[in-house]
Every structure is written in structure tokens, then in C-alpha cells.
Amino acid sequence: MISRVMSAELAEHAGQRVTIAGWVHRRRHLKSVSFLVVRDRTGLAQAVTGPNPPVGDLLAQDLPAQDLPAQDLPAEESVVAVTGTVTASPQAPGGYELVAPEVEVLAEPRTAPPFDLYRPIVGATLPTVLDHAPVALRHPLLRAPLEISAASVAGFRETLDRLGFTEIHTPKIVASATESGANVFGIDYFGRPAYLAQSPQFYKQAMTGVFERVYEVGPVFRAEPHDTVRHLAQYTSLDAELGFIEDHRDVMTVLREVVAGMLESVRRRAAPALDLLGVEPPVVPAEIPAVHFTEAQRLTSSGEPDLAPAQERWLGEWARREHGSEFLFVTGYPMSKRPFYTHPDPARPGHSNGFDLLFRGMELVTGGQRLHRYEDYVRALADRGEGTEAYEGYLQAFRYGMPPHGGFALGLERWTARLTGAANVRQSTAFPRDLHRLSP
Amino acid sequence: MISRVMSAELAEHAGQRVTIAGWVHRRRHLKSVSFLVVRDRTGLAQAVTGPNPPVGDLLAQDLPAQDLPAQDLPAEESVVAVTGTVTASPQAPGGYELVAPEVEVLAEPRTAPPFDLYRPIVGATLPTVLDHAPVALRHPLLRAPLEISAASVAGFRETLDRLGFTEIHTPKIVASATESGANVFGIDYFGRPAYLAQSPQFYKQAMTGVFERVYEVGPVFRAEPHDTVRHLAQYTSLDAELGFIEDHRDVMTVLREVVAGMLESVRRRAAPALDLLGVEPPVVPAEIPAVHFTEAQRLTSSGEPDLAPAQERWLGEWARREHGSEFLFVTGYPMSKRPFYTHPDPARPGHSNGFDLLFRGMELVTGGQRLHRYEDYVRALADRGEGTEAYEGYLQAFRYGMPPHGGFALGLERWTARLTGAANVRQSTAFPRDLHRLSP
């Protein structure tokens, strides 16, 4: 390994001669001294050449690029190893800087980045960012959502591991569409037609018969014909399913633990990213408020059998105002609006034991209790005018005894976007796939 | 949640009246008593009806099925909740059983399993097992490899998290083939041709420019035309990539930590599965022995530019004999046998800084140092008669300064199969995909 200390560890090496390594984040020349700011995975460190101490906070001073004469310091995004003596400097990032530096260039960039990575704000449009993701994501503000995303997933798994769940990996190539016949990508599977899985729904249910409690973190695929700020053709689905429940409320209890665990993990693992973005993660109430769909309809004066985005937003405001909660469950969605595997509410004909979790007025999680008896599946499919042929592999589990069960699916990109306040879900994934975008 | 205690917790409730819930694993009738063995996610528990204590170890007695008169106990694989008084019984699993039981049936099976799940061995062929995976995987012997698999992945992530790696999620739908033009699944992407990713190779390299150290656990897809015991059309790839290395040996050092961490996690998290399968995880030497490819050729008297499976097996035996190691690195593979992104060995023309890790004589991991300079990629592609057009998205990262880096990919199913001694990689995944199999 290249022998080095990380920029965040400089203080521990005061007075020593050490090597840091990373990318040239910024170079800057003053009358008598020059600064080289190096970015590594822990943050920024500066090296200073010349006899004088730094005359100000270099990072806070965001001079126009033309003020920076190109001298003999390596260009921005050069990969460098810088050896110098660690010296206290109140103006340097972390309070220490390297003096009397020797700079070794490990790799030179061929091209300047499409926008300046050192500026505190991102001076490029979203399409430019996405077209140049491999370099654009080096900007601390663009990298931060991905750190929050990684910390969120770690918290998802940590919580479910603690609750006795087992991680599974299920097929992404399937013989028939899972969620609906539409919006599915076709694939040539050794000369046979097959599809990309729209969810691990059938498999996680089947594995509930094996492990009782399972989760999967994996890609799902939707051939979304809509070009919106909240749809992707591939996204990361955080799926969980558990058996031996009374009804959907047990699923909601687990989901509340999961969301709290994800936020706790983000606070613990991604604090610098939260600080950088100015994000304060919300507090999850001990019990997340819940309204029944019919009540949500009444509150939003809606007569429709589903909630439109504007109504979800209104409900998000209402939950904050009335319950002091950023989260709101909507329960009892009409059976007609839920997939065929949804368990009906025994007490309210036409309504389901299915729920959505709204986060700041946007649907974040869909879940519910599922049917668990074979004959109920046959009837549910018949009621929708479908036979069981296409679902035989799926229905197999239910022939052999399945416990009452339910689960949920949370879209990682939507979660991260909502948490960080990003307007577009494409800002919370490295290489989005959509109607128009297949590269990089 | 259905109020219950787990079978493994019975001892903590001695003398109390409690409810367990799970599947009827086996029922058995003797002259004066009947036994109902219930399986839940923590193991087995038995309930006994009638006045007499059990007369022997029920589980050890594997009487033919016809010896079991079908009486009024629910059939095998019924989902039940059994309430009874926890009573010490030396012959019962865990030393306690439920007496004076009341049995509630939560779901009845419609069909008997294709083979008896309670027998200590699996009385079915692999195709029968795979065709009936949702029920077959309930057999403790068939479930155990999946528990070991989950524990292995947890150890992979745990080790890399500790070493400062960041988890990423990358596109599985790509514009051009990553590893080679062959063995790739085509997909209709909104009317455009696209492919399923054969590896996250290009993306994990690009993200090394962002986070320095990254990993991904995700599906990869290979349109393998070969019907062998070690190939799957979809498998779970454990990928890692790190920057600021000297050469491939730094990657090997990290890989050694990862393999040790995976095995430690398996011992800690999946001890019952190991016991059940009679598996003793191997010890990883502080330094895994390594032989150069030319030396491996000499040892196996091979003149070929690659190692055949028989030679790998021979080397596995040799490593055990000579070094007391189940693991062996083979380094310095010929450049002609490695992908174009492989870094050459500066000291040995024609050889690479690429390596394989053999585990018990079978290739388990491929890795190495990669090229990191844009012009080296252009030259490497030209040397293979290829232009850069198809790789522009990939090569973008290298235009902007990339550190010396390398990484590796480990196939989860192969790992689990090798660890558990399974003859076929299909025994270490729930729902394998291959040339012939697309369901369940």
C-alpha cells in the first residue's frame, strides 16, 4: 500500500514528516506562498510552499478561477502523494497543514473536469453531472448523498439482523412478470423469452416459508415509460418479509424499527455528509401516526380510489402539523388498487391490509399483509380474470403450508433523495438508468 | 405478532405454559403417547400428548413413514401454534418439551412435500430439490448452506467496512459488454439494444476515483452456454476495488483479510449450520502462500497458457501438503489470458499483475492490479484490435486522474459450495438460473 496518513489524521502526527495521498482538489498561488489542497477519502488537507504561514482560510475564499495563475503545481484532479511536516495552522482544514512539501505525481488528468470540483456549490446542470458521473461524483456535495445511502443500507441490515432476519439473494431473471404485465423489460434467455424482475416479491414470500424472516437488498427493474423526477428504470429495493404476524400492523411495527435504525446509522456513519449537506435527520416517533385510506380521502376531499401526489403532500403537511411527525402511515388501501397477493381487511370489505408509508408527503414504502393460503390465491387470481398457469412456480410455496405473513419494500434512491432534500431521485444514485439514459 | 417463544428458548421458560409456532416437522404415534415435532427458525421442539414421558429420542429414530398411523395430529408442513407446559425431558431437542399441548392450525398444506423433510438425509435428486425449492429448502440440510452464505456476506461487508470501504450499487443494464462480447444477455431497453452486466468492473473502478475503496454485493449475469456443476447464468458477485496500491500484492493482502473475516463471521453467525453439515471452516494462514504462474506451470508440467481445473486441483493438494494451506494464490497470469484492463508486470514482459485465489484447488477469486492511465487503456485496446468507442463511458474516469488501483471478485455460490463440500454450485443458491432453468 502506498505509505500514507489520511488527511483526517494529520493532528495525530504533529511535528512529524508524513505523506498524504489523494487528488489535487485546488491549487492556489499568493504572492509569497502557494497552497495545494489535497482530497482523500477522509476529507481535505493542505500543503503550503514558501516561508510564510497561510494568510487566510483558503477554502472559504472562493476566488474566480482566473485569479489562479497556472504555475508548476500539478493541475486539479492530478493524483499526488505529498510529503511534508505536519504543522499547526488555524486556517487549515482540521487545524494542521504540511509545510516544506515534496510532491510526487502518480497520475495526471488528461482533461479538466467539466466544472470546478473545489467550488462550494456545483456549477453544472444535472445532465452535465450525470454525463460526467465518474468525475462529477468526486465533488463533496455530490458524493455525500451516496455516503448517506450506504449508511442507510447498513442500518437497514443491522436492524433486521438484530430482529432475526436472514439475508437472501433471489433471481433477477424470471419467467413471468411479478408486479404487473406492463413496465417489464424483456430478455432473450437462451432463446426463450424471460423478464427482468420488477421485485423480489414472490421469492421473498417463498423464503418466509424457509427462514420466517428474510430481507434482500438488490436491483429491481421497471420499464417506466414516464420521464419524471421520481422514477428510475433500475433502482435498489430494500425488501423485507416476515411470517407469524397477526396482520399488517406487525409489519408496520418492524418497518418503524427499520426506519429508525436507518436514520440512527446515517447519524453514526455519515455525520460529515449530513453536515456538508446541512441535513438534520428526522426523529421517528415511537409510534408512527396512521390514518385509514377513507379518512385520508376525507381529509383531502378526494373521491378517487387512490391518492395523488398532491394529496400525499397535503397529508405529509397534516402529519407534521397534527402529529409532529415527518412520517405517516396510510392503511386500508382499496383492494382494487393493490396487487392480487394483498390480504383483504376482514373487517372492511373492499379494503386491504396494505399500507403505504409517506415520508415528508411522498410515498416511500409500500407494504402489507399477503394472502397465505393456496385457495385464496386461486380465488384472487380468478377474481382478476387470471388463471394460475403463469404463477405456478410462485404458488408452489402456498401448497405446502405458509404462515400469515407480510412485508414491505423501500426504494433506496427515493429514501435518500427525500432525506437529503434532492429534487430529483437521479441525484441519489451514481449512474441512473431511465428512459433516455443508458450510459455512463 | 403471534405471541410465542422460539423453540431454542424453551429452557428459559421451564414450568411455564407457553406457545411455540412453526411447521409440523414430524408427527409420531406410539402406543400411549403422540409426538408433534415443530420446526421454527431457531430449530426443533416437540410436544407430547398423553400421560407417559417420551420413551426414546424421537429424532434419532427414523422409522419408515408407514409405521406412523395418520391420526388427528396435523400433517407435516401444517403451520401450527402449540401451547403447552415446558417440561424437562432428556430425550427432547434442547432438553425440554411441551406437555398437555393445545394445537391450533394456522394453515394446512394442500399437498405432501415431494420428499420427507424430517429425515436426516435428503431423499430426493437435485432436480427434484430445485423444482420444489420453496418447500425443499425447508429441509435443515438444504437450508444450512444458505445460512452459511448469508453469514459469509455479512463477514465480507464487516471486514471491508472496517477497512474504510464504501458500499456502492451500480447499473445492471449497460450499453456494452463489460468482460467480453460473448456470454452476454441482450435486452430490449426502450427500443434500444442493451446488455445485462457481466460484472460491476467498470463502475467499481470509476467509483475508486470517488471513494478510493468500494465494494458491491450484487447479481451478475453470464449467458453461459455450458451446463456444468460450477456455472450459473446469474450469480452473486462480491466485488471490491481499492486505490493507492503499490501493486496487486496490496489487493491480495486485503483479500486475505476478507476471506478470514468471512470465515470468522460464518463461525460466529452460522455455527448450527456448520454443525449440521459437519463442516469445519478452514484456517486462513497469516500469509496465504503464492506461486507465480510459471512456477505453477512447472509444478503441474503444463505448457498451456492457462491452468485447467485438474491442474488447479493438483495445486490445491500441493498447497495443503507443502504449506498446510487450503488457500493458494497463483500470480502473474499471462497478459494474453487476462482482460484488457489488467496491469502488466513491469518486471516480466508478457505476464500480468493479475492473480487467482484457489480454495481447495478451485478458482474462487480473480483479481489484480488494473491499468490506471488513460493512454494505457487506449494502447491496451489497440493491441487487442479494439477502438475506444464502445468504452467511452468507462474510460471517462481515467481522463480525470485515477490512482493506481486493483480489486477482486468472489463468486458467492462457489465459495459456499466449496466451503460446504457441495458437488454442485446449484446447492448453494435458492433458485439457480442456468441454461435450462428459469423457474421457480
UniProtKB/TrEMBL annotation, chains A, B:
Q: Which UniProt keywords apply?
A: Aminoacyl-tRNA synthetase, ATP-binding, Cytoplasm, Ligase, Nucleotide-binding, Protein biosynthesis
Q: Which residue stretches belong to region Aspartate?
A: 201-204
Q: Which Gene3D superfamilies match?
A: Bira Bifunctional Protein, Domain 2 (3.30.930.10), Nucleic acid-binding proteins (2.40.50.140)
Q: Where is the Aminoacyl-transfer RNA synthetases class-II family profile domain?
A: 156-440
Which positions bind L-aspartate? 179, 222, 366, 370
TM regions (residue ranges): none
* Catalysed conversion reaction: tRNA(Asx) + L-aspartate + ATP = L-aspartyl-tRNA(Asx) + AMP + diphosphate
Do you know which InterPro entries this protein is assigned to? Answer: Aa-tRNA-synt_II, aa-tRNA-synth_II, aa-tRNA-synth_II/BPL/LPL, Asp-tRNA_synthase_2, Asp/Asn-tRNA-synth_IIb, NA-bd_OB-fold, NA-bd_OB_tRNA
Q: What is its main location?
A: cytoplasm
Location comes to: Cytoplasm
Question: Which residues are tagged with the site Important for tRNA non-discrimination?
Answer: 93
What EC number(s) would the UniProt record show? 6.1.1.23
Pfam families xref list? tRNA-synt_2, tRNA_anti-codon
A GO biological process of this protein is: aspartyl-tRNA aminoacylation
Q: Which GO terms describe its cellular component?
A: aminoacyl-tRNA synthetase multienzyme complex; cytosol
- Report residues binding ATP: 222-224, 230-232, 363, 411-414
Enumerate the GO terms in the molecular function aspect: aspartate-tRNA ligase activity; aspartate-tRNA(Asn) ligase activity; ATP binding; RNA binding
Task: Kindly indicate whether the keyword Hydrolase belongs to this entry.
Answer: no
Q: Which family does it belong to?
A: Belongs to the class-II aminoacyl-tRNA synthetase family. Type 2 subfamily.
Q: Subunit structure, per the record?
A: Homodimer.
Q: What is this protein called?
A: Aspartate--tRNA(Asp/Asn) ligase
Organism, as annotated:
Nonomuraea fuscirosea
